[in-house]
Amino acid sequence: MTCKDIKTSIDSASRRDPVAPSVKSHLMECTDCSSYSDQTMGLIALLRAQPMVEVPSDFDFKLRARIARAKSEPESTSILGHLWAKTFSWGQTATAAAALGLVLTFVTYNYMHRS
Ligand SMILES: [Zn+2]
Fold first, then answer.
1. Cα Rg of the chain (Å, integer)
2. Of 1, 26, 28, 84, which is least surrounded by CB within 10 A?
3. Dist. CA 58 → ligand 1 center (Å)
4. d(CA 72, CA 77)
5. Cα–Cα distance between 49 and 42 in angstroms, integer?
6. Ligand 1 centre and the CA of 2: distance in Å?
């Protein structure tokens, strides 16, 4: 097994399916793979330590109601409005406008302070 194979089996290992003995013996000899294993296990431990997010008890009900409402709402009749709704949201438009403004400010500033 190459170091690449070892790292792949470290990545795919889990609690139920831990690394094979051959991988363990490689980790004893190879410092690179050993440190990779330590980093991966550290990351997994960090992720496991995160608190579980509790879903509100009425989440399922609210979600189903919202889906039903979205299904029953009439589709936009104008083609342009329909296209607009499918292409951009207002949030995306605002973000794009802000980014464009930032670029224009930067370009103008650089142009003014060129000489
Ligand atoms: Zn190795």
1. 27
2. 28
3. 50
4. 14
5. 11
6. 7
Q: Give pLDDT, residue 112.
A: 84
**Considering the entire predicted model, what is its pTM?**
0.46
Ligand 1 center–CA 18 separation, angstroms: 17
Q: Which ranges constitute the DSSP H helices of the chain?
A: 3-12, 21-29, 31-48, 59-72, 79-87, 90-112
Mean pLDDT of 82-108: 82
Closest CA to 6 of 95, 72, 50, 31: 31
Residues 6+ apart with CB under 8 A from 23: 1, 6, 9, 10, 13
Distance (Å) from CA 45 to ligand 1 centroid: 22
What digits encode the pLDDT tens for the residues 66-80? 999 999 887 656 677
Of 5-9, 24-28, 29-33, 83-87, the one with minimum mean pLDDT is 83-87
Q: Inform me whether the pLDDT recorded for 20 exceeds 60.
A: yes
